Amino acid sequence: LDHAGLRLITCGGDYSEDDSRYADNVVVYASLTGHQPR
């Protein structure tokens, strides 16, 4: 990344007991939009 940001990848959707896995992935992107000096 060339900026302050966050990437989060986690499981989503229905969980399959037979396959021991979730149906989907959830991907979240975030970017810093401002800050306050101390």
Output the structural class. Answer: mainly beta
Which range does the strand content fall in? over 45%
Largest sheet: 2 strands, antiparallel
**Spatial sequence of strands, sheet with the most strands:** 1-2
Q: From the alpha-carbon coordinates, what is the Rg to the nearest angstrom?
A: 16 Å
> Would you list the SSEs in sequence order as H and E?
EE
Distance between the termini: 25 Å
General form = rod-shaped
Count of domain modules: 1
Number of strand elements: 2
- Taking pLDDT < 50 over at least 5 consecutive residues as the criterion, the unreliable ranges are none
Please report the number of helical segments: 0
Mean pLDDT across every amino acid position = 94
Concise summary:
The chain is mostly beta strands and 38 residues long. It is 0% helix and 61% strand. It has one domain.
What does this structure look like?
- By secondary structure, the protein is mainly β.
- The chain has one domain (1-28).
- It has strands spanning 5-16, 21-31.
- The chain has a two-stranded antiparallel sheet.
- The model has no long low-confidence stretch (mean pLDDT 94).
